[in-house]
Design goal:
The chain has 409 residues and is of the alpha/beta class. 44% of the residues lie in helices and 19% in strands. It is built from 17 helices and 14 strands. A 6-stranded mixed sheet has the order 1-2-10-7-8-9. A 4-stranded parallel sheet has the order 5-4-3-6, sandwiched between helices. Strands 12-13-11-14 form a 4-stranded antiparallel sheet. Helix 1 packs across helix 8 and helix 8 crosses helix 9. The chain is elongated.
Length: 409
């Protein structure tokens, strides 16, 4: 292994001892259901069980504990999309260190609220992490605060590397680690620890498609990022200089995942593991869903790195997943405008095992003739095959049926 890296296994072991007792040693557990679903042996590291529901506590605390007394008195400042903010705010409050956090204005409300609840001063600025970072550096200069970078700091990288240290203690046979990538601090630390313990282990980073800065940089492509993503925790425009050097030296592989794969992974974590993952936290599982051939037959460690997702967004993701799976479907029928027709349709759907949740009539607009009614029926089903059975039952009774939202595909 390369020896001239900015962080060594000894630094990660020292960080592990330093933060022990103040950061949760989260479980790394075999998921039999996910293993069957993906064709790989899947072990999940549940970093969403940290007090702030994110791995970011590890690096934040290690960095705070290495500050001088003068630095602690002056106070610290950080820019963050949410999880680094909460990690710094929580442990700074615990240690009596004043903390200011600059967050992009698009940060989910739950992360802003929790950061304030930990006692930090929160400044909302800009639409991106880079813009928040510029303001944080301006405030650090103006107020003589100590700037704590969310990913480009050797102390922080060492703290994040304790994740892989624990994973390989609990599951030493792992041959692949799959790690979400934002600025690169976590994958850099995990790669150093894992390769020191097992030089042959594969390290795979996962980026959301709109923010694939590490993959583009490693491929010597121009970096183009932007757009909305459910994985705002890894929506980072710039890779840190230290993580990039480590990624190049250790030849880290990078995969991209799209928004649908991330949403599917969030829903799967909740349904299978009964655990909440934010978009960034689900990115590793999304990679297995999107690239199954890459991992089939491997012993894979997934870092579920965070669970801070807005409840309204989570509800939307789950409902959209039900629609994609056909478990919520919408049918459009043309029925005669006479007594008993709606009851007859409802009866046919009920006999076929569907559960109607919403009905809409359309008599007045569009091309509906005066003696007919356009009927939209939203229903719960057992899946796509069941939708097809219900459609067949309706068509067998003479109704013309259109399946909306693709649920019948």
């Amino acid at each position: 292994m390369t020896t001239d890296l900015p962080v060594a296994l000894g630094d990660i072991r020292a960080a592990s001892a330093r933060i022990a007792g103040a950061v949760v040693r989260t479980p790394c557990l075999l998921s039999q259901t996910l293993s069957r679903a993906t064709g790989a042996e899947i072990w999940v590291k549940f970093e969403n069980l940290q007090f702030t529901a994110s791995f970011k506590e590890r690096g934040a605390l290690n960095t705070l504990l290495l500050l001088s007394e003068d630095e602690r008195r002056r106070g610290v400042i950080a820019m963050s999309a949410g999880n680094h903010a909460q990690g710094v705010a929580y442990h700074a409050g615990r240690l009596g260190v004043p903390a200011t956090i600059v967050m992009p204005s698009i940060t989910p409300n739950v992360k802003v609220r929790h950061t304030r609840d930990h006692g930090a001063r929160v400044v909302l600025h800009g639409d991106t992490l880079a813009e928040a970072g510029s303001e944080a550096r301006r405030l650090a200069e103006a107020e003589r605060l100590v700037f704590l970078h969310p990913y480009d700091d050797a102390r922080l990288i060492a703290g994040q590397g304790t994740i892989a240290l624990e994973m390989l203690e609990d599951a030493p046979a792992l041959d692949t680690l799959v790690v979400p990538v934002g600025g690169g601090g976590m994958i850099a630390g995990c790669a150093i620890a894992a390769r020191a313990l097992n030089p042959g282990i594969a390290i795979v980073g996962v980026e959301s498609r709109g923010y694939a800065a590490l993959g583009q940089t490693l491929a010597n492509q121009p970096v183009r990022t932007g757009g909305d993503t459910i994985a705002e925790g890894i929506a980072v425009r710039d890779i840190g200089a230290l993580p990039l050097a480590i990624a190049r030296a250790l030849k880290i592989e990078v995969l991209e995942v799209d928004e649908v794969a991330i949403e599917r992974a969030i829903a799967l974590f909740l349904e299978v593991e009964k655990t909440v993952a934010e978009g960034a936290g689900a990115a590793g599982l999304a990679a297995l869903l999107a690239h199954p051939e890459r991992f089939r037959g491997r012993k894979v460690g997934l870092v579920l790195c965070g669970g801070n997702i807005d409840t309204r967004l989570l509800a939307s993701v789950l409902l959209r997943g039900l629609v994609r799976d056909g478990r919520i479907a919408r049918l459009r029928l043309m029925i005669g405008d006479r007594p008993g027709q709606l009851a007859h349709v409802a009866g046919l759907i009920g006999e076929a095992g569907g559960n109607i949740v919403e009905v809409q009539h359309q008599r007045l607009f569009g091309g509906v003739v005066a003696k007919a009614t356009e009927l939209d029926v939203t229903m719960e089903t057992r899946g796509r095959a069941h939708v097809r059975d219900i459609v067949a039952a309706l068509e067998g009774d003479g109704f013309s049926v259109q399946v909306l939202d693709g649920a019948g595909g």
